[in-house]
Amino acid sequence: MSAVDKAFHGLRHMIATGRLGPGERIPPEAELGEELGVSRGPLREAVRMLAALGVVEPRHGSGTYVSQLRPEDVIGSLSLTLELLPLSGLLEVYEIRRVLEAHVASKAAARRTPETVKTLFSLIDAMEATEDPTEASELDHRFHAEIARAAENPTLATLLAVFRARSRKYQVFTLPEGPEMRRKSDADHRVMATAIADRDPGAAAGAAEAHVAQTERWLRAFMPPVEEDEDTSGDTAG
Amino acid sequence: MSAVDKAFHGLRHMIATGRLGPGERIPPEAELGEELGVSRGPLREAVRMLAALGVVEPRHGSGTYVSQLRPEDVIGSLSLTLELLPLSGLLEVYEIRRVLEAHVASKAAARRTPETVKTLFSLIDAMEATEDPTEASELDHRFHAEIARAAENPTLATLLAVFRARSRKYQVFTLPEGPEMRRKSDADHRVMATAIADRDPGAAAGAAEAHVAQTERWLRAFMPPVEEDEDTSGDTAG
DNA sequence: GCAGGGAAAGTCATCAGATGACTTCCGGGC
DNA sequence: GCCCGGAAGTCATCTGATGACTTTCCCTGC
């Protein structure tokens, strides 16, 4: 086993067994390296691996801390890599998204509060009012995020947010057919929001699934990946 | 921006823009470090991060290669960290699993081949025959993996395999109540397999969801995490 | 006694050089 | 034609030193 593996598994084991708990600071590099029997180089590489996976977080000058280890912490790590997938593989992701969006819509319909309904419709109004495709995309994201939030499963909400972020790289609304697509999309949103407002889980699930399927169809038809030099990772969704 | 970030994003950008394609070897450390303007230390840390995320794979003595970038490549990275989650967060994962297992069961029922059915029942027979809880757990995994495979979405199959692996750390069958649980579990499996054999998607989905829900209930009741020093990562599922 | 400033310690970040380990390839020997 | 050995290329690791940032604490001034 290589030194990096030794450090990686050793550190992971310390966390798995509870010797290092969520939020806790891990020992300094020199000390930990000696304990694990590796020098600082490989140890740092192992720490970076765990950081990329959302398990620890190094803070310059302060120390390295174990994350809170919530499901969304580790699932969020996918957002850095999912957008590297070729479009072909993305279609498989879409099938998953279809199923899960339908589920959260259904659950949101069952558990909705008046505030949720109000938020959803105000987001729809804003979407229909704006001309800026980027803003529309942002509002669309917040609309779906709000539904996922209402379903009361943060893990699932994070997973769907990751999947959606990948799709947003393709800004279909900027195409010539964009305006027509947006009208259709807006109509879908109204159907979904209405079903949720009516506490009708079946209708909400159906509308959500149809909406995702429609988006998938558009993406399949045109696929101009947008060149980007992020970070535009402003997660302004409430 | 730190040197590690510069190297990480630089490398990721090279892959995102297609300058480095799947399976391709990236430039040697010295060369790449010079191009990105960082020394070998931080560059290696950035490479390790991408390796942890399933994007690249360093091979000692040969070079570092971009992965095939299939969805399962990057999703598989979750398996290293999902088992670090506390049980409380795991319940949210179970809800997702319930929905997705139901979906794959339904799809498997629609697309099943005679070979699939044969495999499923032979796995059930083997499960009922064995006394070894570890072997039973392994067969259980293969049973569910076979159903996911039949649904023809490798990404989804990988995602479910990751979720299941987390649950298997809790070997509920070794409890005093184990034998009774296993009888119930075996019965569930027969219902699922029969629904799939009958090409009845609705019944298959219902049976799968009920089965996962049952497992979840057991886990919620007893939760003795099994200490382990893997790797037992033998993915023997066909 | 208290608030502010600044020094000092602790820790991660980075660079540089050297050496070892492993893979790959090629040519020589049989 | 096959096998073996060596050379080159590349990643893996160690060591030492320096810089950057954060945190703590003491000292100063009021």
TrEMBL record, chains A, B:
The keyword DNA-binding applies. Residues 1-69 form the HTH gntR-type domain. Keywords: DNA-binding, Transcription, Transcription regulation. Pfam families: FCD, GntR. It comes from the Bacteria. InterPro entries: GntR_C, TF_FadR/GntR_C, Tscrpt_reg_HTH_GntR, WH-like_DNA-bd_sf, WH_DNA-bd_sf. One of its GO terms (molecular function) is DNA-binding transcription factor activity. This is GntR family transcriptional regulator. It comes from Streptomyces fructofermentans. The gene is pdhR.
